[in-house]
Amino acid sequence: MNIQFDEKNRVFKLDTEHTSYVMAVVDNEGFLGHVYYGAKISDTDVAYLLRTDENPMVPSKNNRDRSSFLDTFPMEYPGNGVGDYRESAIAVLDKNGHSAVQFFYRSHQIFDGKKKIPGLPASFAKETECQTLEIVTEDPVLGLEAVLVYTVFAGSDVITRSVRVTNHEAETIALTKVMSASFDMDAEGYEMLTLHGSWARERQIEQRPVGYGKQSVSSVRGESSHQEHPFVALVSKDATEDQGKVYGVHFVYSGNFLAQVEKNQFDTLRVMMGIHPQDFCWELKQNETFYAPETVLVFSGNGLGGMTRNLHDFYRSHMIRSPYKNKKRPILINNWEATYFDFNTEKLIAIAKEAKKCGIEMLVMDDGWFGRRNDDNTSLGDWQVNEEKITGGLKHLVDEVNVIGLQFGIWFEPEMISPDSKLYEKHPDWAIELPDRTPCRSRNQFVLDLSRKEVRDYVYEAVASVLRSANIAYVKWDMNRQLTDLGSSFLDEKHQGELMHRYVLGVYELQERLMTEFPDLLLENCSGGGARFDPGMLYYSPQIWCSDDTDAIERLKIQEGTALIYPLSAMGAHVSDCPNHTVGRVTPFATRGNVALAGTFGYELDITKIPEEDRKLIPEQTAMYHKYNDLVREGDYYRIASYAKNHEYDCYEVVSKDKKEALVTFVQVLNRPNYHSRRICLKGLQPDRNYQIEGDKGVYHGDTLMHAGINIPNMWGDFQSVLIHVKAAE
């Protein structure tokens, strides 16, 4: 069993293959304390770690100093306003206007498998693959129940947490904060690792010491955002890719979030993850339940690389549902950077014909095919084909592309509405807006109020009717602006604080309906590039557009941060034209292909106009994709060197699960004059197995390749790259 309850000592112990998570119930009142999380331990009765035998004692023995107890005890799910001055996991507004809430242990159940969370994405597994603990806690004053849910995925070294809160009293109560996970631990010199960014430079790794007080990353933009990512890790000072302690916390949610680490006066840490409480207020009537999103917890005693590989395996096996998750994705060519809004049927067919010659398998028609959409100022919401551009209609175009031998994909931005659109003329109240205020537009567009059922139904039918009209195999679902002017003409004054969360639930409902009606559709989520790259989106789409910045060198940093926690198969990555449309850099076409190979792989260029020497390389690159994609998609990822840290070169490796094959990607960003070759040491091989390097007649033991390494010959010029293919010797 992976979950044990020591009834005598009232201790819960959750075990994965290499980790343990321990809680204990103390005192007559039933305080639930966090005891331990880390490397796997054998003993169950470790409640002594709670220090309740020290001063101050538990309230039953020393209630005159109850505040001292509450201010120091490592609460598993801390309440609000009752004596614990650290960050609370939950807060309310009751009938008296009070915010206090405190939960006590009442009961629990342990069962095989895992329940779904209504309306929310969450991990899944067969009954034999996981085990769940539900701890029922209660605030007896408020009649409020919080069920703390823990699921153990032993094989992935992952524990997930979520919370559901139910009001059992006749009086309505408002939730003003509901965190999904909280745990306390000793501050042993940990550093805080986060992923920050902006448009075109998403998920940049930052690591800094944890100081006293609260340090956090968050988003109140209505989505997980370019700027901050719903992830935080605590990393021991000595941690590297291969050694040291790492605690990772990741939020399965696509809206506002708060990820916080707090260091207090007694040198303990409180780690917290959940929906951001700003602008959040959720009303609970009698017997109504609020479901908080899921949080993924992972501990690695083998450095960042251990955390990375655990999360990759977990998301591939227990979050991505698409039938494509274990398949090669079609090599696509997207017309956005090729044509922008200036295209028609003839132009798209010309691209498709040339693409087919080069081994490309799908044409994707991006923005500009609908309404009067000749720039980004009009027509969002009017999802009817512009037959002045798409002459003969969409089905004619799709059929012609299929005859050429390519699949067809299409771009939508379903959550948006243009002020200059037929939809806005008819339904201006469908936009999220504040009355009497100058509206805050972005890209001259508004956001649709997805808290309204009629809006969701319109959006779904608009998208679905297009998909039913032709043989469309792929959808790129975009979101090019974030939320402002938080007002809904549908919600009354008591429920305006529910808008942001209801909006996210609306997005999930739409994508769930889409995948139910079109189960074989390849869905790729996107938000101005990679602003909505989060585990919640992976539940609906097996891949997410990583960034609008397709420059190969910038992508090294973006893809390093993304691959820290997401499998390579989830990263939308394309080869684009040069000078690059975002940064103006010119890089070798071969390097652009090698870098894009670490993702889904495709093209973002006008194949009819690129230099002939570049076009001739495309058949080689598409063949390379087919040769290596199974390995890249399914293998274990190892980071060998980081350009973001050394500013000279980048190197990463993917190793097959059976350790018989490896692919190393080396990118020389800056050439070194008058210098010897670069030496790198491989990782993840079997030490006593013999290997051969493609193009080299020699045979090498795995331990030699990993400890002594190989030499990378100097390459002429900056931005050069090489792939090194290693296979077990026959």
Report on the structure:
This protein has 730 residues and is of the alpha+beta class. The protein has three domains: 3-318, alpha-galactosidase from lactobacil brevis (Beta-galactosidase, Chain A, domain 5), CATH 2.70.98.60; 330-634, TIM Barrel, CATH 3.20.20.70; 643-728, Immunoglobulin-like (Sandwich), CATH 2.60.40.1180. α5 (345-357) runs parallel beside α6 (394-404) and α8 (453-469) packs parallel to α9 (499-517). The longest helix is centred in the last third of the chain and has 19 residues, at 499-517. The protein is globular. Substrate binds at residues 199, 366-367, 443, 476-480, 526, 548. Its EC number is 3.2.1.22. Keywords: Glycosidase, Hydrolase.
List keywords for this structure.
single chain, 730 residues, alpha+beta, Beta-galactosidase, Chain A, domain 5, TIM Barrel, Immunoglobulin-like, 3 domains, ten-stranded antiparallel sheet, nine-stranded parallel sheet, 16 helices, 39 strands, 30% strand, globular, glycosidase, Alpga-gal_N_sf, alpha-galactosidase activity
Short précis:
GO terms for molecular function: alpha-galactosidase activity. By secondary structure, the protein is an alpha+beta fold.
